[in-house]
Amino acid sequence: MDRPNYITPAGLSALRAEYDALFATERPQLVETIAWAAGNGDRSENGDYIYGRKRLREIDRRLGWLSKRMKAAKVVDPARAPDKARVFFGATVTIADEDDNHRTLTLVGDDEADAGAGRIGWNAPIARALRGAAVGDVRRVVLPAGERDYEVMAITYPDR
């Protein structure tokens, strides 16, 4: 990995919760189902066995990915940001475009991004453009649909 995997404490907790749920609950139940299905005889036409093995591979792959991401994670608490007048990791930013459409975004780690909920990954084009901006700054963002200018209207950080 060529760059750090920044993540908020809440994002790391979410990754850990998913890992624990898969490893401690879903995987053991699935192994039990596969063992039961294997004991039923012919495995070539046994849907429980075939689906179970496929799902087990998916779970193991996801567990490996989660493990790597948690090991590479660099937890950054946005509440401890030294300069809360500028946009950095964990900031919640209200921006306005040329048409005065307002949008509120929170810059989070790439693993916890959810554009529909307003959480964008730290390495997304708009997040890269907003890094270091202060209220009143205008930043140009190159998007697939073309270039757009956004003005920073407000910056907030979570309380400690």
From TrEMBL:
The lineage of its organism: Bacteria, Pseudomonadati, Pseudomonadota, Alphaproteobacteria, Sphingomonadales. It comes from the Bacteria. Signal peptide: none annotated. NCBIfam families: greB, PRK01885.1. One of its GO terms (molecular function) is DNA binding. Residues 5-75 form the Transcription elongation factor GreA/GreB N-terminal domain. Necessary for efficient RNA polymerase transcription elongation past template-encoded arresting sites. The arresting sites in DNA have the property of trapping a certain fraction of elongating RNA polymerases that pass through, resulting in locked ternary complexes. Cleavage of the nascent transcript by cleavage factors such as GreA or GreB allows the resumption of elongation from the new 3'terminus. GreB releases sequences of up to 9 nucleotides in length. This is Transcription elongation factor GreB. GO terms for biological process: DNA-templated transcription elongation; regulation of DNA-templated transcription elongation. Keywords: DNA-binding, Elongation factor, Protein biosynthesis, Transcription, Transcription regulation. Gene3D superfamilies: Transcription elongation factor, GreA/GreB, C-terminal domain, Transcription elongation factor, GreA/GreB, N-terminal domain. Residues 84-157 form the Transcription elongation factor GreA/GreB C-terminal domain. Belongs to the GreA/GreB family. GreB subfamily.
